[in-house]
Amino acid sequence: MNIQPIQFQQPKQINFKSTYPVVHWVAETNGSYAPALSLEIVRVLQRKLVSILNKVPKAEKPVGFAEQKLKTYMKLCDLDFRKTPFVRSFYDWNSRREQGFKPVSYVISGEDAISFNEDLTKEIGRNKGIAKSALGNPYSAESMMAINNYVRNGLKFVNNPKKRITGNDGNTYVLHTKFEVIRNKNGKIKGYNFVDARFLPEKGPNNPIERYRQGG
């Protein structure tokens, strides 16, 4: 997978918001990269990505070169993250039921991530807490409605054209990450090492997924 940096248009307004899909690519050491499809692996890699972006550096535990490079890159591409360096995830569970490849995970950055938490995510937790206390079960009519609201309106939120990251060519872009498998001496997977990430076009000949399908 050839991930190259791109130049982004400077927004005309300061309160620029951004969301973007994420595709995680995985390889064995010195092996070829392939996109992760299973929800289990996608969630592990997405959590690592979000953890890197939200990590606050400490003197006794310096940030690795690849991680620092990623945060610098994201601040160049995502002005909302530069202003408010905080991100959260959104998962499109229904994409797994559709034919063909479609990203499952998204990142929401900056002030948008904070408002998303307040408007959609916390409502689920509040209603689950009330249901658990009253019924001994977190799933009440209210908590289920909050979950459905999160799924339906969350997808609209992350795909809002006014919030999606675009390049100078006017096309929407997807963040493609690269991770390498870490195995113990017995060959069992014990984790994944972050290698790199780049924004690349969502559609067209420079879309890595299309090139992968064609064996490129």
- Unreliable stretches (pLDDT < 50, length at least 5) are 1-16
E-strand count = 6
Overall average pLDDT: 86
Shape: globular
Major sheet description: 6 strands, mixed
Return the structural class: alpha+beta
Number of helices: 6
Percent of residues in helices: 25-40%
Order of helices and strands: EEHHHEEHHEEH
Strand content: 15-25%
Please tell me how large the radius of gyration is. 18 Å
CA-CA gap between termini: 8 Å
Which properties best describe this structure?
single chain; 216 residues; alpha+beta; six-stranded mixed sheet; 6 helices; 6 strands; 39% helix; globular
Gist of the model:
With 216 residues, this protein is an alpha+beta fold. The chain has helices at 39-54, 65-77, 79-83, 110-135, 141-158, 208-213, and strands at 19-27, 34-35, 87-91, 105-109, 173-183, 189-201.
Write structural notes for this entry.
It is a single chain. The longest helix is centred in the middle third of the chain and has 26 residues, at 110-135. The chain contains six helices and six strands, in the order ββαααββααββα. α4 packs antiparallel against α5 (141-158). It has 216 residues and is α+β, with helices and mostly antiparallel strands. The N and C termini lie close together (8 Å). Strands 1, 2, 3, 4, 5 and 6 form a six-stranded mixed beta sheet that branches.
